[in-house]
Design goal:
alpha+beta, five-stranded mixed β-sheet, 4 helices, 36% helix
Length: 135
């Protein structure tokens, strides 16, 4: 596995933002779309974390379809920068915490040294974090 550098991530961010915008336009907005580097992650591979109300993560096939969608829009080397693609329900505590901390859509909020229930993120880039709109 290749070692992911900060330069590689900076180059990838505009592409990820573009992908997020395109998918949001096609399918609906995201609650969370970001990349996270866990502390002491081997090869400095990042996690792509995604949550949306329209995203059905209850079946393996739904997950497979969405991962293929992301994979088809990235170069192979870019996709290999991720340790995992994690699809989360909007009501999961991690998504709710990100939504309460960050409010951004199609942007890039970077943060460092974030502890979520003992899981420490060395760095993260949040492209979209939007709480559900209450009418």
């Amino acid at each position: 596995m290749m070692r992911v550098t900060n330069r590689m991530i900076r180059k990838l961010l505009p592409e990820l933002t573009s992908i997020e915008k395109e998918i949001a336009k096609e399918k609906g907005s995201f609650r969370l779309f970001g990349i996270f580097l866990r502390e002491r992650q081997p090869n400095r591979a990042w996690d792509l974390v995604i949550s949306a109300d329209w995203l059905d993560i209850s079946t393996l096939e739904a997950k497979r379809i969405f991962v293929k969608e992301i994979q088809s829009r990235l170069e192979r080397e870019e996709f290999l920068m991720f340790a995992m693609v994690l699809l989360l329900e909007p009501y999961q505590p991690f998504v709710e915490e990100m939504n309460s901390e960050f409010d951004v859509e199609h942007g890039d909020i970077e943060f460092t040294d974030y502890d979520f229930d003992g899981m420490v993120f060395e760095r993260a880039h949040i492209i979209t974090s939007k709480a559900q709109q209450v009418d």
